[in-house]
Amino acid sequence: MSDYTATITREGKWWMVHIPELDGVTQARRLSEAGRMAQEYVAVTLNVPIESVTVNVEVESVGPVKNIRARVSSIQTERAQAAELESKALAETTTLARELVSADVPLRDVGAVLGVSFQRVHQLVAG
């Protein structure tokens, strides 16, 4: 199995597919076709079965929009951090809701404290 990287840029109506390991270039009409075009290029150039070629596609630029790969990586990192924070916030909300209910605070009042509906408080303390 051979692993290659294809860096993709947009030029006019075409996606230019660069395969740096082979100093090669091909093109695709649609971004969804770029990986397959890179695979085919590598397979034909090296005279190997296409199934033995794996290509990692990385979009680099589209006209004036640069550093796309780095920006997407940053977005993915931020989304993962946001999901982790959301999970922590839910756990803390659940803990606080249960503590307030254990202190005989009515569900509607717990909801008012937490800024959620009393139905949501019921879900939190029952789950």
List the helices and strands and how they pair.
Elements: E1 2-11, E2 14-19, E3 24-28, H1 31-46, E4 53-62, H2 68-102, H3 107-114, H4 118-126
Parallel strand pairs: 1-4
Antiparallel strand pairs: 1-2, 2-3
Helix pairs in contact: 2-3, 3-4
Query: In order across it, which strands form the biggest sheet?
Result: 3-2-1-4
Number of helices: 4
Which oligomeric state applies? Answer: single chain
| CATH fold-level topology of the largest domain | Double Stranded RNA Binding Domain
Indicate the CATH architecture of the largest domain: 2-Layer Sandwich
The average pLDDT is 95
Name the beta content range: 15-25%
The assigned structural class equals alpha+beta
Got a strand count?
4
Query: Which shape, going by the Cα principal axes?
Result: elongated
Distance, first to last CA: 47 Å
User: How do the SSEs run, as a string of H and E?
Assistant: EEEHEHHH
**Proportion of residues in helical segments:** 40-55%
Report Rg: 25 Å
CATH class bucket of the largest domain = Alpha Beta
Unreliable parts: none
Provide the number of structural domains: 2
Main β sheet profile: 4 strands, mixed
